[in-house]
Design brief:
single chain; TIGR00266 family protein; Double-stranded beta-helix; Trp_RNA-bd_attenuator-like_dom; mainly beta; AIM24; AIM24_sf; 8% helix
């Protein structure tokens, strides 16, 4: 995938250049611009997408496939301000990606949202892990800057769940409380993921859960008893 990332790290946009006959798979709503010979197909499953379905707040997530017969460009941006990074995978190195961080990928990458190996990994409705397999590259987007880490064999790292972006499937992990119940309730720390290498882990410097909590504090919604 030929990607140029510009306007980062705060407001990154990825421009994917498609050769004649090329295509790219993009999260619905992530397209910022197209240039040249570009046509679009939208789907929620079956065939080319092999049953890709995602749910957030009860609404289905669709994905768009952009194709070009003569060559063109597709600009991709995220909903929240942050950075982007291009990541390569192959058949020996599947990647697990937080659903809100997958923006685009090569057609040779399979994105499976039905994988059930990490149910409850993230707090908050609709956040799941996508299992990305195959051969090609992905475009990850983050809220805030993206921070990669390469763990050596046996090396551990603990990351707040809201800051996890992606990690190699080979990396061992477990989800636990940040500390005691007292620190969890009073200290503001919730669930964390403990990773053990070898393998790659990507973090983001901001948390969408923290953003939601802040909005609720400064703009509380009154509930009606009627």
């Amino acid at each position: 995938m030929d990607v140029t990332i510009s306007a980062g790290p705060a407001f990154a946009m990825g421009t994917v250049t498609l050769p004649p006959g090329g295509s790219v798979r993009v999260e619905a709503g992530a397209m910022a611009m197209t240039r040249g010979d570009i046509r679009i197909e939208t789907s929620a499953g079956g065939g080319f997408l092999k049953g890709l379905r995602r749910t957030f707040g009860g609404s289905s997530f669709f994905v768009n496939d952009f194709h070009s017969d003569r060559g063109g460009q597709v600009g991709v941006s995220a909903t929240l301000p942050g950075d982007m990074a291009k990541v390569a995978i192959d058949s020996s190195r599947p990647l697990l990606v937080q659903s809100g961080s997958w923006s685009a990928s090569d057609p040779g990458v399979d994105v499976d949202s039905k994988w059930g190996g990490a149910k409850g990994f993230f707090s908050g409705a609709g956040l799941v892990l996508l299992r990305c397999t195959g051969q090609g590259e992905l475009l990850l987007s983050t809220y805030g800057a993206i921070v990669p880490a390469d763990l050596a064999a046996g090396e551990t790292m603990t990351v707040d769940n809201g800051h996890v972006v992606a990690f190699d499937e080979a990396v061992q992990y477990k989800v636990r409380k940040a500390g005691s119940w007292k620190s969890t309730i009073l200290g503001g720390e919730g669930l964390v993921a403990e990773f053990t290498g070898p393998g790659r882990v990507w973090m983001q410097t901001r948390s969408t859960a923290d953003l939601i909590s802040w909005i609720q504090q400064v703009n509380p919604q009154e509930t009606s008893n009627s």
